[in-house]
Amino acid sequence: MAFDAIYHQRSITRAAEVMGLTQPAMSNALRRLRLLCDDPLFIKTHLGVAPTLVAHRLSGSIREALDSLREALRHTPAAHAAPAQRSLRISCPDAFQPLLLETLLENPDFDWQPRFYQSRRREALQELATGKLDLLIDLDQPLSQQNGLRKLPLLSDQYVFAYGAALTQPPRTREEYLRTPQIQVSQRRDGLAPVDLELGLRGQRRNIAVSVQSALAARVIADRQPLGLTLPGRVAQVLGLQHCPLPLEQPLRLELCLYVESRYRFEQAVERAIRQVQQTFAGLVRTTRRSAGA
């Protein structure tokens, strides 16, 4: 396990954190591995450590052995104890959580307990890589080849202007859109949401009246206050909000991806859950296209 942690983290310090060990303990483990294999295994660099050719050759076999051990332990109940139901920890926008929950629970072979979180974006990939999170649904972002994660495209969408019962007339021009008071939906405590970053690059700025972290909370507010929202079209559809295209010269786009730790390739239950998530979003796309063509 020490070898696997160092190989994927490319850092003895980060590997020690993942394993819950001190750095000296991890260094001692690496020293014993070097003696056993008669090879340095990892060479110091300015970025951390780099695996040798021998380490590269060993990595696949060691990862497969660890995955087989994890799978065997998962199916081996503890003595004198009832088998515990394993949690599937998912971080995704709250507007999609009811859809995913319904899809997962409809599968009779799904015997895990879904648990939804909304991780901070800067911490989510690290939580996924260290096993604190199982599935992450988030904006498209670059991945390091060294962190052992997979990225699967889920949804490509355009932002729309969404509104509830309290707003009778959506904006028709760019000036009206930028002037209309809006609800900002963002998990960030401060800073700009992705749509505002894109608008800023165009020299434009929305009139933000209130900021909330939950799209479901924004849905309730929109029916009571004459405030608009700038949301991905499918999110507006899921929330049941009226919506129309943004009155801008160029559309604002969203790319949503599913991130998962690579070791789950060997866990059939998680792979089935991944396929179900992909099918749910594919079904959402088909439904939107039929609605648009009606």
TrEMBL record:
The keyword DNA-binding appears for this protein: yes
Family: Belongs to the LysR transcriptional regulatory family.
Record has Transcription regulation as a keyword: yes
Domain (HTH lysR-type): residue spans on this chain: 1-52
Protein name: LysR family transcriptional regulator
SUPFAM superfamilies, alphabetized: Periplasmic binding protein-like II (SSF53850), Winged helix' DNA-binding domain (SSF46785)
Provenance organism: Pseudomonas triclosanedens
Keywords annotated in UniProt: DNA-binding, Transcription, Transcription regulation
A Pfam entry, by short name: HTH_1
